[in-house]
């Protein structure tokens, strides 16, 4: 009986560790200039690809912002609820082949994401080649 309980305990501990080492979850976006948290993006998997949606805006004066500079169907849509990471596919330790939208500028970039640690996500947005881009680090949001 003790061995069975130990086995169950190890299983749930391992499951928790595996989940915490995934890009799936809620992440705080950090402003490059001020270093303050701007929003929470939920990264999720759908049909084998990775997407990210803005689920919370942390700065009170921006809660009702719309994507005024966006083009197409995203133009003037609320940023809250907007899908900003689209169609990334797992490729080894990174996810790539999709895009990221900067709702502040309305620009879309190619991107890739990698898990730096259980609570730190590296995002690289770029035009053309990855060398010509910008890197951000997001931190896992605590529940």
Automatic annotation (TrEMBL):
Coiled coil regions in record: none
Name of protein: Signal peptide protein
Residues covered by the DUF2147 domain: 25-140
Pfam families: DUF2147
């Amino acid at each position: 009986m003790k061995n069975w309980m130990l086995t169950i305990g190890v299983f749930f501990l391992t499951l928790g560790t595996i989940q915490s080492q995934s890009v799936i979850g809620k992440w705080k976006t950090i402003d490059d200039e001020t270093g303050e948290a701007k929003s929470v993006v939920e990264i999720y998997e759908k049909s084998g690809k990775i997407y990210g949606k803005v689920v919370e805006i942390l700065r009170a004066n921006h809660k009702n912002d719309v994507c005024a500079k966006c083009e197409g169907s995203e133009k003037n849509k609320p940023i809250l609820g907007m899908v900003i990471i689209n169609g990334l596919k797992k490729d080894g330790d990174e996810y790539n082949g999709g895009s990221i939208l900067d709702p502040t500028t309305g620009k879309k970039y190619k991107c890739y994401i990698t898990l730096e640690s259980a609570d730190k996500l590296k995002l690289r947005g770029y035009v053309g080649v990855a060398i010509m881009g910008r890197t951000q680090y997001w931190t896992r949001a605590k529940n």
